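Fold it.
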Amino acid sequence: MKRSRFTIMLLMTAAFAHAQQRITIDINRKAQVIDNIGASGAWFSEGIGKYWPSEIREQMARWLFSKGFKKDGAPEGIGLSAWRFNIGGGTAEQGDSSGIKDFRKRAECFLSPDGKYDWSKQSGYLWFTRKAKEYGVETLIAFSNTPPVWMNQNGLGYKTEKDHRSNLKVDQYDAYADFLTKVYQHFDKEGLHFDYISPVNEPQWDWSHPYGDADQEGSAWTNSEVVRIAGALDTALTRAHANTKILLSEAGHLAYLYAKDGTASHQIQALKSGGVYNLSHVPAIIGGHSYFTDDGDSSRRSVRVHLADTAARYGLQYWQTEYSMLADGYKEGHKGPRTAMDCALFLAKVIHDDFVYGNASAWQFWNSWEPGRADMDTRYYLVALHPKDKTYKDGTVTAVKNLWALGQYSRFVRPGMQRVIAESGDASLLVSAYVSKHQTVLVCVNDGVEPKAVNMAVKGRKFSKARYYCTSKDEDMGAHVVRGKNEQIELPGRSIVTVVME
């Protein structure tokens, strides 16, 4: 193909002027196809969706799901293309006797021990899930942290024995599979279609706590138990003629997908040899969580390269299905609190590395909202909750920089786009590029404190117009129009900039 270039000059202000750097995007060097970019709405969504003022809830939904634009051209929201809904295990009905300390992290169950279903349960979670559907979110995922409590060996939503085995009773696999299938069928008939059902979550962790000291619902699963529940669920879904897929295995640490020790290690190899990818409802996808693999650039990238190589060898796509800054990697060696922009830049770096080094086809954040400050240490959330009191039945919210950092990817890197190779030659300027039939999207993460002067050359495609969007300490996806291909544009220090070319 004849080489063509569309050059955009991203130039520093005169105070920082120095030699330009070049970003090269090669349309012909293709990598993975992007399926979705999303987030979860667990825990706090239940109370918010039930009780908080409608204008607050509507604003939260608009921030996450809207693909519209404001009058100034800035996005209304980050246009997520996936939303994760938690199928609860019944700890909320148990109340304090559930043994889960925080009432906000107990979840209702649609099924009662007497075998009756109550579809009015989890109405808060469902409020946001229906909003996702209304806004046109492309992929809905229903995930479960525990089977219904009465199906479990100890009658609780978490383990009390540290044996790294499933809490599910050995004679309840079919019952659990039937439960998940009936939940899918009910909401599918309502027009709320779940594209994926995830029956296990972080099977590597033992999820064991003394009674009364648990943090949330959860269960360990061995590889053989994951294979067994996948088979039971596939049978139940086939019997129901269900048009959905099973998402496995939501590993709690990426290295468990290809290495490590324990009963749920080497999961790519184990699940492949266990035959789960021969089941009609199990796609060639392996899901894992990027927690605890974010400390240091070289280590973070090494884990993802190893994962990408192993997944490719076994013919699987890698999906990153949960991440927030649980560990201290986000501090990057600094002591004391980190600003909201520090957290946002670190989040963007992890997303970049999952796409560029891990070849992730999907990327999903945990958790969309939690109580906390909006200006410092925003490590866990996209939206900061400011509850009015301890009942969590009213409050206000603030969008934090993490929301707009994720939005630099989710709003413009749409389902079906393909990553192509982009190179900057500057370790502090991370770049990734994605193409559709009519667009090329470049995401730049300037981790340096100085503005950058960048000359961008696109090989293999011509363009007539471009726009760019900036998240920095001063902007939240601020919109800018490129009026000519030689126009000077500032790429600020410590910023994330997305250029959309058509």
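The first strand starts at residue 8 and ends at 10.
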